[in-house]
Amino acid sequence: MDTLELIKLSKEGDKEARDRVVSENVGLVWSIVRRFANRGHEMEDLFQIGSIGLIKAIDKFDSSYEVKFSTYAVPMITGEIKRFLRDDGMIKVSRSLKETATKIRSVREKYGNLYGREPTIEEIEEDLNIARDEIVMALETGAEVESLYKTIYQGDGSPIYLIDKLAETKDESENLIDKLALREIIASLDEKEQEIIKLRYFKDRTQTDIAKELGISQVQVSRMEKRILKIMRERLGA
């Protein structure tokens, strides 16, 4: 039984068929997981996340796409892992540390008003009756969060913070993964759809120019472009 038949059965509620599609694509998931090695997470954990992306691909796959299931699944699996890494990488500060940091700020304000100086760690420890290591951790955590919101550029408009630049930065492996996934998606489009994407986004041509070259109306180009972009977003898991 081929993959398309198994996926059809899976959509009809056949759990064994779905499990078989998953087992047949374990190697595909691992091949993608290896691209995200050395990110501070166990490979097995990333495999579990990638498997979620695989299952989503099984549930969402439509044979009318006229593309191999593996081609459709790659960006779905990749997107699931990237979302996990992005969300899990956000700084999470526990409530107790936040409360400690607030108390420390109060002590610092008090010392500033009374003595015109910053309190020492020992003075904060004595004043709050909190362990020194917790005080240090709260101070370091507060400094890390604060540094992310440091203004690195202030022009005529809104300030640009360091966290904004970090959010825009991608390493080379992520760029490569994006390119590979995008290349596979474009290759799955039909000839006219590929031509529209190439002219519109790689040669910066207008819809009117494309319509003239392809012998169709500008409205048709617009509709096709919207449909193509929707398909691409779905397959990239965006």
From TrEMBL:
The keyword Signal does not apply. Keywords: Coiled coil, DNA-binding, Sigma factor, Transcription, Transcription regulation. It comes from Mobilitalea sibirica. It holds the Pfam family Sigma70_r4. GO terms for biological process: DNA-templated transcription initiation. The lineage of its organism: Bacteria, Bacillati, Bacillota, Clostridia, Lachnospirales. Residues 121-183 form a coiled coil. The keyword Transmembrane does not apply. This is RNA polymerase sigma factor. It comes from the Bacteria.
